[in-house]
Amino acid sequence: MGTTGIPTRITQGTPTKGGIGESTLRPDGTLKVTGEFAYASDLWHEDMLWGFTLRSPYAHAEIVSIDISQALAQPGVYAVLTYEDLPTDVKHYGLEIQDTPVLAHGRVRHHGEPVALVAADHPETARRAGAKIRVEYAELPVVTDEASATAPGAPILHEGRDDHHAGHVPHPNIVHRQPIVRGDAEAAARRADVIVTGEYEVGIQDQAFLGPESGLAVPAEDGGVDLYIATQWLHADQRQIAPVLGLPEDKVRMTLSGVGGAFGGREDLSMQIHACLLALRTGKPVKMVYNRFESFFGHVHRHPAKLWYEHGATRDGKLTHMKCRIVLDGGAYASSSPAVVGNASSLSVGPYVIEDVDIEAIALYTNNPPCGAMRGFGAVQACFAYEAQMDKVAAELGMDPVEFRQLNAMTQGTLLPTGQAVDAPAPVAELLRRVKAMPMPPEQQWLSAGGTPPRSAGGTPTRPEAGGETADVRALPGGLSNTTHGEGVVRGVGYAVGIKNVGFSEGFDDYSTARVRLEVIAGEPVATVHTAMAEVGQGGVTVHAQIARTELGVTQVTINPADTQVGSAGSTSASRQTYVTGGAVRHSCEAVREKVLERGRAKFGTYHPAWATAELLLEGGKVVTDGGEVLADLVDVLGEEAIDLELEWRHRPTEPFDLRTGQGFGHVQYSFAAHRAVVEVDTELGLVKVIELACAQDVGKALNPLSVVGQIQGGTTQGLGLAVMEEILVDPVTAKVRNPSFTDYLIPTILDTPPIPVDVLELADDHAPYGLRGVGEAPTLSSTPAVVAAIRAATGLALKRVPVRPEHITGT
Amino acid sequence: MRVTFTVNGRPQEADDVWEGESLLYVLRERMGLPGSKNACEQGECGSCTVRLDGVPVCSCLVAAGQCQDREIVTVEGLAEHAKARTCGTGACGSAKGTGLDEAQQWQARPTDESVELSPIQQAFIDAGAVQCGFCTPGLLVAADELLERNAEPTDADIREALSGNLCRCTGYEKILDAVRLAAVRQEA
Amino acid sequence: MDFLRPASWEEALAAKAEHPTAVPIAGGTDIMVEINFDQRRPDVLLDLNRIGELQEWETGEETVRLGASVPYTRIMENLRAELPGLALASHTVASPQIRNRGGVGGNLGTASPAGDAHPALLAAGAVVEVASVRGTRLIPIDDFYTGVKRNALAPDELIRAVHIKKADGPQQFSKVGTRNAMVIAVCAFGLALHPETRTVRTGIGSAAPTPVRARPAEEFLAAALDEGGFWDNGKLIPPAVARQFAELVSGSASPIDDVRGSASYRRHALGVMARRTLGWTWDEYRGNERTIRCA
After folding, report:
1. Total-model pTM
2. Over A176-241, what HEC string results?
């Protein structure tokens, strides 16, 4: 069975509409625009209770005592639970390392850690009861960075570690360490004509998905529980929930509810176990919905990072070597820190050819907010630093920054620092060329053309200009706040390119499962696709239907809700779902097709020799030969009996990186994107308006071009947010979160987001289904450094930290 | 306390409302109208936008008691509202919430089924402006109101009118496309 | 919690007299957030939405009497000529949805230094009309803000309206936020030229415990304009004067470091905004003068 290429589509009859490569519309679109789509926070059940979580006000403290008696005595309160109420010996969970307490036991390790739970008949009753739980804390000294984490006598966040990284880390407050050594960086440095060093910092970014963490747990008569939940991976949740509840996995039945965005923030559990505990204790359905404040404590964030880099280059512009050290702060619990270290280290060189490297990445345990998965993890932090370095080296050499990058760009066949060859197209130079070739936005577009005053119902402030022209503040830095009418505004242009791995790496058994059924309903062939893939907005449901249409030649496809009745689909993470679950759907469809053809041969084989000799396809509801001749109607072949198959599919295996040298075939696939940012900076006030953020990305094959562009624009915008505004601020003394709200954690509005022209390149990766590449993350990488490069170009400042604040630009 | 008001053209009554409850909570949890979304509950995202006596507001910042005798239009009533605007009838469809049974039976359906949509709703689907969809209801209510008072908005007008609605998935480009599309179709 | 829905202003004043701890709610921008996030549980909420006159304004010969609940959107759309500074400030308030419901009464009642209306009200020299069953008081804006989120209201008083003189000269408002829309002020500045009295007034937001005027800057500028005969000759203001004005504005603030910005940035930004808004207002003044002369 071939794994690449698109079935030859030679058809006499009706082509199958809505197959891959078309911009078919979302099957859930109508429900979403009418308000009927049921998100996890919309669920309702007769008799349901509301859950509330009491959280730690301290980042590090001993819990001296907890008194729940007053809370329990409140009318309307059905249960108050603490660590003592956990039903089994399994009291911790975690994606890779089970170090996260379901409820705090004797100690809290970060601000906002769950301590107790309440179930009551109204959310306000639950909140008031929560306020009556008396918890006595004794504050402990906090660990907040590498120095305090590894200082002699530093508090150890997790005593007696026995996880599989414990043996190789230099200190128990280091979750994981990955060195990568290739060639001889020291020797190569001696060949360099210029050596450029830099120290960079990335703040804590939040996924800030709009749909808050929520779910509904319904106790079942068989002693199990049904959980309706917004998550990224149903089966990973189930695997972590069941042992804590003391239930076999098949008694924790999970159904995916509508998910209001994820971006990595739903990879870890939030309220899943809590809602189940309350439901099982009270015997009633329990709904939990975090509010925005709580959401900032309820999920992990992007790792903040400090990065030290050294690059060398020869006078003719060839990179000689790279050394770097990347320190990621994982916060109180491990979450996906080990994988983030793996990505950061293995991709730390960027999409460039550098043969001699010396790399080290570590993730810390601290009392800061726990950090884990967020779009592009590990690679985002590294890309900000190496792209800043590229500009710096180019400047040192007096070279054009794009030409310098192109000169050193990797190509197919380049060896990564891990020794792994990039064995698919790597059009890095081409993406840069394309993005640079796009037309530039007009200068001073804030002067409205022709002197006509800007239209605005709200009476936009304008300034009379010499030529009768008027400035539209909506197009200027500061926007509606009316801070400049052009004064101090300087334009800058910046470029960046990045590399992201697709799929789960380092030997993880990354598979997915798809059940495909083909049957005749009301005289029409209908396919039903059932997977456990979490549709979080990315459009996987659209693509699955397209694949089924292409592979089975049917028009009608039903996508069943995702649940645990079918095998695992893996996580909606790492740009992997179209590749892996899309691959699984295709694989199951191919198997179904084989069954159809078997049945067809048995039924009709004697009528036409082509049944035995030709390559057969399903197309437009018919069985056709590869020459386009129609052999039979699918309806007739299928008859009364459905074909129904559930199969697993996995991408080619990877292997762990060597713990000393970092060598290994660690990644499945790579994804590349390049950006050009055009910004206008009010250099006096330090305010930034991004004018345009153009992107070129290789997607291998755009299964749904409309969705692909949507992913690229969305990812680009999240990168813009990290560049200029998004950061969770943590008090360096208390380790408390200072801005857990949408008032002070700012994400881009429509007035902050510029036009994002997208150039999609399709160079097939022969290892992947249809030649596709995961799309979601790559645009989040290069967006940030491109914007910052443009700000540097406008201001002449070094700007080593994101987000760039007005203080950095104005030196105040 | 009891609150009596009109939602999507239909008289509604809510009993035992806690005095601190927002209009958003009453719509979502008492009226069975969860279309208005609870993304921030602090007026910083616009996902709960409804029309209050015709004016777009954040329903999270309206105390339920303030709605006594007033008229609300939510995303669930948007198609009817738009229809009434064009055809001059005041009829309003029956709004319903999502019971668990319905939620369990959720199935992706083709988009061309016979659900009547307002122009802006259809444009959001057609332009690819919907991803996770959590911001969509609030954006639809805000965008519909923009097109009601300004049939030919410039891009800057659209951006200003929607600057109180956060979207985390799309980067807003397709949302702009959708509003442009609806404006053009409206004109046609 | 009780929820009172007075149908008239008199009923509202009676209710406030009976329940002095009652928290008035109109646009809900501040109080609903505090309730939604469990930060505040007032005994009584006093809904002011049913009192129609709070949402109305009267334009007199010299003054606009602006109802406390006139939405910012209406101010932007309808009072740009009379109250240009406040109209500009209104446009920067939060989001369109919030501007549709919030009014200056809320900014004044909360008296947060970050309220967007304050600098414009200070610069225009507004007077706050407050009332109780005991009668009506007119409080000059300069006496209104008494401390961090504190104002001169007595427990039984409600804000009825704001009296603002119709602009007799150019006014400007500028606000720094780290986002291009829907953002709370890092700091803000309002400036009003008053050619009739040959004075200037200013207002600073988010850079002191209360909204404040930059009096030394006002006095300096008024004197400089006077001495140079600028009001009459309409000449360009010398850069040195603008610089000095900016420095004095900056020096009038007493900002702190917080999550939204550093104290030193706030001082710096105030200076920049002062210089720019002076340029914009003076350009406009000169333009008007020229237009008048040409006519």
Report:
1. 0.96
2. EEEEEEECCHHHHHCCCCEEEEEEEEECECCCCCCCCCEEEEEECCCCCEEEEECCCEHHHHHHHH
